Amino acid sequence: MKLHEYQAKQIFAQNGIKIPKGKLAKSVEEVEAIVREFGKAVLKSQVLVGGRGKAGGIKLVNSVDEAVEKAKELFGKEIKGHLVEKIYVEEQLDIDREMYVGFTLDRANKGIAAIVSSIGGMNIEEIAAKHPDKIARKTINPKWGLWDYQIRELLYESNMPKEYFKEVFGIIKKLYNVMIKYEAELTEINPLVVTKDGEVIAADARLNIDDNALYRHKDLAELKDYTEIDQLERIAEQKGLNYVKLDGNIGVIANGAGMSMATMDLIYLEGGKPANFLDIGGGASAELVKEAMSIILQDKNVKVIFINIFGGITRCDQVAEGLIKALSEMKVGIPIVLRLAGTNEEEGRKMIEEFLKQTKEEIVLVETMEEGAKKAVELAR
Amino acid sequence: MKLHEYQAKQIFAQNGIKIPKGKLAKSVEEVEAIVREFGKAVLKSQVLVGGRGKAGGIKLVNSVDEAVEKAKELFGKEIKGHLVEKIYVEEQLDIDREMYVGFTLDRANKGIAAIVSSIGGMNIEEIAAKHPDKIARKTINPKWGLWDYQIRELLYESNMPKEYFKEVFGIIKKLYNVMIKYEAELTEINPLVVTKDGEVIAADARLNIDDNALYRHKDLAELKDYTEIDQLERIAEQKGLNYVKLDGNIGVIANGAGMSMATMDLIYLEGGKPANFLDIGGGASAELVKEAMSIILQDKNVKVIFINIFGGITRCDQVAEGLIKALSEMKVGIPIVLRLAGTNEEEGRKMIEEFLKQTKEEIVLVETMEEGAKKAVELAR
Amino acid sequence: MAIIIDENTKAVVQGITGYQGSFHTERMLSYGTKIVAGVTPGKAGMEVHGVPVFNTVRDAVEETNANASVIFVPAAFAADAVFEAVDAGIKTIVCITEGIPVHDELKMYWKVKDSNVTLIGPNCPGIISPNKSHLGIMPPQIFMEGNVGIVSRSGTLTYQIAYNLTKLGIGQSTVLGIGGDRIIGSDFIDILERFEKDKETDLVVLIGEIGGTDEEKAAEFIKDMSKPVVGYIAGITAPPGKRMGHAGAIIEGGMGTAESKIKALNEVGVEVGKTPMEVAEIVKKKLKR
Amino acid sequence: MAIIIDENTKAVVQGITGYQGSFHTERMLSYGTKIVAGVTPGKAGMEVHGVPVFNTVRDAVEETNANASVIFVPAAFAADAVFEAVDAGIKTIVCITEGIPVHDELKMYWKVKDSNVTLIGPNCPGIISPNKSHLGIMPPQIFMEGNVGIVSRSGTLTYQIAYNLTKLGIGQSTVLGIGGDRIIGSDFIDILERFEKDKETDLVVLIGEIGGTDEEKAAEFIKDMSKPVVGYIAGITAPPGKRMGHAGAIIEGGMGTAESKIKALNEVGVEVGKTPMEVAEIVKKKLKR
């Protein structure tokens, strides 16, 4: 779960990291009032996507009039597919230098990656590519946590100027505490700004919390911004389905994440385009199959649905039952390619064959997933 | 550093462990006022020594008159060599059952020993000897800390009745947090009481903090009760000397803890009794040697002083200088046996030989520590 | 032979009294797996499908000499269950539980590593050495004893490919899913090392998917393997930044694409099947040589 | 041979710019010890007695290939210094610092254990292999090269006994103080194991003191040793419950008395000298046989 900048900054501040003065606005009027108070300001679109700045989501404003004008531009604007509904209004900083501090899950080394750079502002991959001497990286072993010598190594190896050592040392320590305390997958300050007054301050803030750990962080779970998630994906999540919307026209339902991806890939290999990823998981009930159908049918691009089931724990008869229920309760109107294999395959196929005698919906039963993909692509043309 | 029961209980309470209602009294009048408020009460002498109860330091009182009478008895009483100056007045508990929970440094296994018993009240060695089936012990590895399965194992293995599982589980967890948070060497609840109302409550509290860690726990360091420490030992500590008073009549000064103990042992082997342990440490200055002399001379039992120096970092000439200073500035009046070996031995011996020409004090120079001990025992007779 | 589990495997089921634990215990038992004990705190003395239940893994091991464990406890208690099993002396742990917080998984990883314990999973379908032992939630009837090892990040896809092999008359030595999470106890290399040493295994099928760099690293290891490896990678059509079901199946910062994985495998001589069927056909072709 | 350190030991001094660090660096250098680098954060580029100073141990190791470290940093920073040395690849650490919080010492113990690093100390006088290398604060002139190993919990007492031996013409292979704290990196058994394997060592002197059960455990190990061991135990007259200087020298709960230690050692055939002089005499007698 990604937190908005304004939410992450609040948490940083609670954990002793300095942040600029700022207030959240949900309307042009609120922006106006805040800028009237601050004088000069920065309007920052609160959308959960990287590269907001370059995409025009951040505006410097030097007067109330300018603020109103820019706020009107920003509200309702779409940034990389994300609608701006909230603007975080911040004081302008007198920037002397930009730096970077971040922590992220280190899959390869089974730890926490600590990354520090003595320059910042651009994204970290860019810094790594262009200024390898200004960046330092280290894996923190979860057994022992972060120790002072590691912070010193990060500072020296990133060629951090000595005058910022003490401040940045403290910030690295505090940000690591945030990473651990809130069970984050990633947390980042970019840029970490040194102002002309010599203050070291988090000018931006990223904090992504592990969804699996949210049950231990109820207060954070409440911050989840559902408006940021595709509506269908949100509904699917509530039903316990893994659904990702794509831009093709062949709806996919499969059991297992790998199987679902493989099904999408087969469609692609046959020259078609999958409309989604949808994993009904292991041991799905008839009810869940029905829900899966209903979600896919809400995607108006879908011209054909390919249901690909390999029954292990999942029983093919349950899948058939769910499918029949769905077809009985709603008008589908597009062809369905169905492949059932494994546990109770026979029973499932028989149920479908029976059902086909009494319905006008089109269900094509196939033997293998390869054959099914071929058929689905044909039908989608 | 040992905390008093009332201090430890305050810390327990701050960390979520239930304690009985109680107030500290430093006079009979204060006891009277508190018992007037509480009705029935327990008067508990606050002395830093185990087995207070058996030694008569704890009194149940059922009326204000009784409280006054008992308080008068307790104040000024000596319990195992500790003077009662403070009484902790507590409500009386309606005890249904006594249990035990404790953590201590586990030298042998390099961890934290967790000890739980489903019975309590007597000391833990006694429980272990008499009721081995009611006690469970486990080493907690500092790498991983205490995990829930270990608490469950402790509960099952100590045959803890099921109805107390949940409460005691929580208390074990909280007490471990106290152990770690305050860097304790030992912390213990004995007895952990179940009242007739089913409340689980810490009826006693022990908490010993690692002296070496006190710099990180300034608030605790301030709780140190210097009245509990032998005055000479206190002065020695402030001077940076390791001094332990014993009941013999031969004062001992040596460099190094092992060397000091060996010197004491030699005296004992020759049939004498050491008056103290005193380690001046490595690289002692002349000043420190003088301080060591002055501390030993305050012990009126001392009839002879044996100074045993093996110079490594410590220089024999420095020791000689310190001794000469001491003898010049104060009247010693008892014989000194001096053994100087190692670094600058010659210089040291020469200085002493010169000094002996102009003083009336008796200094016997010996070649070996074995010879020195023999001589000291002779002179003490 | 087979790897990790065989007829000498004696397993404890942690969380045996739960719905999943009980259901799969019955299935594993009926396959012939030696499930010798169950563990659920507070339920000692019970029996589940004839298997005695203990309060702690330590008790279970003392009574039954179990050497393996299958974990079905809820995500919130899974790390504790792994730690408990390790400290009780269990040497092989299969953790089925999904949805475990990743910071817990990091601790699990290092705990088993410190004690030289093999952890399969979490969030995995388990492991089967056909006709010998099955620890997990796989459909055992589709497998057949033989000389092909299968290691996979996916569950159903594994079944599909094993099923295809079985239909072609090709049996398996051991089949296991290493799990779909970002931090797992055993990765491809850990398993490939064992297949390389296993006398019963002549060829290995590696089933990967997008996310992480585990397949790329495996390729480096495969370079020095004596046994042929056939691959499959799912997720060619997966868009970056979107999790495809598994927490680990996500293309992040340009890393972990199917393309890069297929390329790495091809470069060390691994034929990568385009479809599950093609994988089985390549295996057949290779075994004939 | 000798154990732990010899002429191939190349050491870093952590805390070299402090008073103690600088003073003892000079002494170690003048004995011929290879001190190749010093570390003090922020002081890179300096020299101390001709030894180059680095900001981190990692830098020092990269530049000089140091394989050992002597730590003189203040107690509050000692655990961090040990961790830093381990992660920089140092294989032998001698920690002189005294007064380290015991919870820090627990972490130090497991950190070095995890990485198979040898830690001597903390709160120890160091280690000397006469005429080869000296890492610590011992008075090196009293030692003589030879065939007796000395392992001790005490500093000055070690010097006294080594001095007695040297006076009798008996030299030492390696002499080391394992430290006076309750939690130390290497205990008697760790060192006895090495002396047992060391070809240059024919006899071992073990100098113990009250507190803990390290000597009792050592006795169990000595039972199976091929080389003779001679003992000394300080603290016969120490009263229970009082620390005799060293944090570890305390009789607690009836455990760790000199009597129990002497008994344990005697039972496995170790002659325990009553005085430091007697120890040297026993050694002389045993070597003559």
Would you write up a description of this structure?
The complex is a heterotetramer, with 2 copies of chain A (381 residues) and 2 copies of chain C (289 residues). Chain A has 381 residues and is α+β, with helices and mostly antiparallel strands. Chain A folds into 3 domains: 21-91, 2-Layer Sandwich (Dna Ligase, domain 1), CATH 3.30.1490; 95-221, D-amino Acid Aminotransferase, Chain A, domain 1 (2-Layer Sandwich); 230-380, 3-Layer(aba) Sandwich (Rossmann fold). Chain A is 37% helix and 25% strand. Chain A is built from 13 helices and 18 strands. Chain A has helices spanning 5-14, 28-38, 64-74, 124-130, 148-157, 165-181, 218-221, 231-239, 257-269, 286-297, 316-329, 345-356, 369-380, and strands at 22-25, 41-45, 58-61, 78-79, 82-83, 87-90, 95-106, 111-117, 135-140, 184-195, 200-202, 206-209, 242-245, 250-254, 276-279, 304-311, 336-342, 363-366. In chain A, strands 7, 8, 9, 10, 11 and 12 form a 6-stranded antiparallel β-sheet that branches. In chain A, α11 links the parallel β16 and β17. In chain A, α5 (148-157) crosses α6, α8 (231-239) runs antiparallel to α10 and α10 crosses α11 (316-329). The longest helix of chain A has 17 residues, at 165-181. Chain C is of the alpha/beta class. Chain C folds into 2 domains: 10-120, Rossmann fold (3-Layer(aba) Sandwich), CATH 3.40.50.720; 143-288, Succinyl-CoA synthetase domains (Rossmann fold, 3-Layer(aba) Sandwich). Helices cover 35% and strands 22% of the residues of chain C. Chain C is built from 9 helices and 14 strands. Chain C has helices at 19-31, 57-64, 75-87, 102-114, 156-167, 188-197, 214-222, 258-267, 276-288, and strands spanning 10-14, 34-39, 47-48, 51-54, 68-71, 92-95, 118-120, 126-129, 133-136, 145-152, 172-177, 203-209, 229-234, 271-272. In chain C, strands 3-4-2-1-5-6-7 form a 7-stranded mixed β-sheet, sandwiched between helices. In chain C, strands 9-8-11-10-12-13-14 form a 7-stranded mixed β-sheet, sandwiched between helices. In chain C, β13 (229-234), α8 (258-267) and β14 (271-272) form a beta-alpha-beta unit. Chain C is globular and about 55 Å long. The model of chain C has no long low-confidence stretch (mean pLDDT 96). Chains A and C meet through α9 of A and α4 and α5 of C.
